[in-house]
């Protein structure tokens, strides 16, 4: 086992790091979508094994690194850089993820009067379609999401209902 670790830990880390690097850059620039997303997630998980083997193989040099300021400073900076992504981004406007998810959330939060034209329908026809799907407005200004919640439906069920209007 030790010779196997010696021969393959570093080369596997190098190869998987390069895959992670390329897929990460592609994801950053929104190129390749689903293929790069799955590749990046799964192969980053696989990278854990050769990383652990590499640390095991190089334990003595690693302990020497851990005793010095550059390693402590690098690890601290890495933790701070990662922690920045957990900071709030300014309320509701900063939430919601990718633009297509924010758009969907905006539509689900619209009133029937606002949403009807998005589906090429008049408000009365749109409301009738909602009623046929079991969604009934109990007051003016009620959002589609409020109607779905009152009917015991999830956002996903509401979205599926709305997509039928576009067919």
What does this structure look like?
The chain crosses the membrane at residues 12-36, 42-59, 71-91. The protein has helices at 2-28, 33-57, 59-66, 69-83, 99-108, 112-115, 123-132, 144-150, 155-165. The chain is an all-alpha fold and 167 residues long. It has 2 domains: 2-86, no CATH class; 99-165, no CATH class. α1 (2-28) packs antiparallel against α2. The longest helix has 27 residues, at 2-28. The relative contact order is 0.06.
Fold blueprint:
Blueprint: H1 2-28, H2 33-57, H3 59-66, H4 69-83, H5 99-108, H6 112-115, H7 123-132, H8 144-150, H9 155-165
Provide a short characterization of the protein structure:
Keywords: Membrane, Transmembrane, Transmembrane helix. With 167 residues, this protein is mainly alpha-helical. The chain has helices at residues 2-28, 33-57, 59-66, 69-83, 99-108, 112-115, 123-132, 144-150, 155-165.
Using brief descriptors, characterize the structure shown.
167 residues; mainly alpha; elongated
Report the C-alpha radius of gyration, rounded. Answer: 25 Å
Separation of the first and last Cα atoms: 60 Å
> H/E series, N to C?
HHHHHHHHH
Number of helices: 9
Measured by DSSP, the beta-strand proportion falls in under 5%
Number of strands: 0
How many discrete domains?
Answer: 2
Query: Average pLDDT across residues?
Result: 86
Question: Which stretches are low in confidence, meaning pLDDT under 50 for 5 or more residues running?
Answer: none
Assembly type of the chains comes to single chain
* Secondary-structure content class: mainly alpha
- The level of helicity is over 70%
Major sheet: none
Shape: elongated
